[in-house]
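Why does residue order matter? Because the sequence determines the fold. Keep that principle in mind as you read this record.
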Amino acid sequence: MTQNSDIPIIRPAAVTPDWLTKVLRRAGHEVTVADMTAKRVGTGQVGESVRFTMNYKGDAKGAPATIVGKFPSSDDESRATGVNYGNYIREVNFYHQIAPNALITTPICLHADVDPETSEFVLMMEDLAPAEQGDQMKGLSLHQTKLALTEAAKLHASHWGDMRIDDMAWVSATKNAPGTMSQELMTGFWAAFCDRYGDRIPADCIEIGEAISRNYEFYTHGYEAPRCLIHMDFRPDNMMFGTPAGGYPLAVVDWQSLGFGSGMSDVSYFLSGALKREERRLHERALLEEYHAKLLELGVKDYSFDQVWSGYAHYSFSLFIMAFVASMIVERTPRGDDMFFAMLRGGADHVLDVDALSRFPK
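Structure:
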């Protein structure tokens, strides 16, 4: 049973003015959509995002001119990833159950529904334009990076040490969630990545990949800290930054991987790819100090800066891992390959700069 059975879950091609009218009225807009156009937006691979531009019959009464819908990927491999890993169910549940109290800025959700048996879903959201999407391959400015770390601190502080989250089986890495990545699986993903990309993989990345595939259990359990809500894919492509024309300073999107774990996994993952190497090295300590200060301001206690730095070094592998694992489970595209190698390079540089390989047991 879906949560809104009177508004059927459909794919983008089936969206009609009548269907949009029901969605908008359910969200409190007493309007009638006369006609609409649709255009795909964003660069997501596991989900497909579409902007709907609407004309209304009569007075629009403040209803939005555009909204963005998110749907399962049209690619079979990417869609299977979304189903098998619970991504689609997780994102809908985030907007229904978590977003109102998560402190972090997200788009306003107008309608969200999912079939728990098939994972077919639909998510209709506020259009964040004229905000602009970040770009993993271009990186961010220092100002944008600070905005992102402030939002990360808000998310992490919102449910810091809140063990009630551990009872939510749909949240990744909770006690009743489906099994997480094993060392055997990690080794298999790394081997498959090497088979596919061969000589394109730099020698220092080979060394890091071999090390993480041998020590994944230590990576998973080797850092002790309070648990909190984590985005688990906290990177520029999942951020919408305001422009002089408008928009929130920053809104974070794509909640398909929401988890319960160490906030430093988000922070380290993000900084591995948000800044160019020299800029990261120059500013990372000050950025982490600002993140830590925001946690304390929001009520987090008994978490020292030394713990922040230790977690930052420990999770420096996170972007590197995501690069080779994600590349094996979504549709392969030229942009995707370039993005994953940019992530791999940024992650490798981070690992080397903080000497993270030395943390593994001898």
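The chain has a mean pLDDT of 94.
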